[in-house]
Amino acid sequence: GEDVEQSLFLSVREGDSSVINCTYTDSSSTYLYWYKQEPGAGLQLLTYIFSNMDMKQDQRLTVLLNKKDKHLSLRIADTQTGDSAIYFCAESKSRASKIIFGSGTRLSIRP
Amino acid sequence: EAGVVQSPRYKIIEKKQPVAFWCNPISGHNTLYWYLQNLGQGPELLIRYENEEAVDDSQLPKDRFSAERLKGVDSTLKIQPAELGDSAVYLCASSAGQVSSYNEQFFGPGTRLTVL
Q1: Along chain B (116 residues), what's the average pLDDT of each consecutive run of 10 residues?
Q2: What's the maximum distance between 2 C-alpha atoms anywhere in chain B?
Q3: Does B108 touch chain A (CB under 8 A)?
Q4: Which residue of chain A comes nearest to B3, CA vs CA?
């Protein structure tokens, strides 16, 4: 079946790197996403990666995909207070199919 | 360009009452989604429209939930009658569908429903 799992909480010091991990079960997942949700707001797509890629970097964000272990991670370099939010890992089989979301990881920043 | 618009933002009703949520997708987006987000959970798809056709409604509890997307633009999600367990955030999203190289869905701010 389709399932996406991620840890519920992560606390990091301002300026450090944050690494949010995710595992998924569906080996036919083609698209893997990271969404950000701030309080009272909808979800915002941060980045995505195709299943035939190992890594994608976009400014402070680095996504690593281990397809063999079905493991996805999001690294945020130089974490700032504005990065405080809930981060959702998600996957879909195709660009038209539904997106399966994890339960989200709440990232909090310590001064 | 305006994003996905939803109204109302908040709704409080008593159980057994009906309720309706409205969504206006991004202009030109032919795919529209309704998601349910329970507290502490990720969104779960309720229904997906391609233009005015519901192409995936397998997760929609059809005994009390209904949706429509007349003319393939705006959409309404209705619950009748509402139950206590329906308290959640209802998110609408839209995407460019098949013309997009990947399935980026743009989300509205959601409607937070509280059933008393």
Answers
A1: 91 97 94 94 93 91 94 94 96 79 82 97
A2: 43
A3: yes
A4: A42
